[in-house]
Design a protein that fits this description.
The protein is of the alpha+beta class. It has 2 helices and 5 strands, in the order E-E-H-E-H-E-E. It has a 5-stranded mixed β-sheet with strand order 2-1-5-3-4, covered by helices on one side. Bound molecules: FE2/S2 (inorganic) cluster. The site of FE2/S2 (inorganic) cluster has 12 residues, from loops.
């Protein structure tokens, strides 16, 4: 199990490798206003990965295409519905401007 820390609340959750970040985030009680069913089509799961980016699953074409069209994207950006936990701890930031 790896530890996911969610900012700005500071909540933490133990998460099994392979779990989608959106499941871990919503399972901890945080909300992401997903309207696409976690298919990478609504921008609602745009998060910043503050620590542990390299342990996450690699971004696929769908995620890259969606991120390309989102305002405010940075090198820390991932879609929580597409990124899956790895073997190491991760810290993410839920974006208030989404
Ligand atoms: S939940 Fe819609 S883009 Fe990730």
């Amino acid at each position: 199990m790896s530890v996911l820390t969610i900012m700005p609340s500071g909540k933490t959750a133990e998460v099994s490798p392979g779990t989608a970040l959106i499941s871990a985030i919503t399972g901890s009680g945080e909300s992401l206003a997903c309207t696409c069913g976690g298919q990478g089509g609504c921008e609602a799961s745009h998060i910043f990965v503050l620590e542990g980016r390299k342990t996450l699953s690699k971004a696929e074409r769908t995620e890259h295409a969606m991120l390309d069209g989102i305002v405010g994207v940075s090198s820390k950006s991932r879609l929580a519905c597409q990124a899956k936990m790895g073997e190491e701890d991760v810290t993410v930031e839920i974006l208030s401007f989404v």
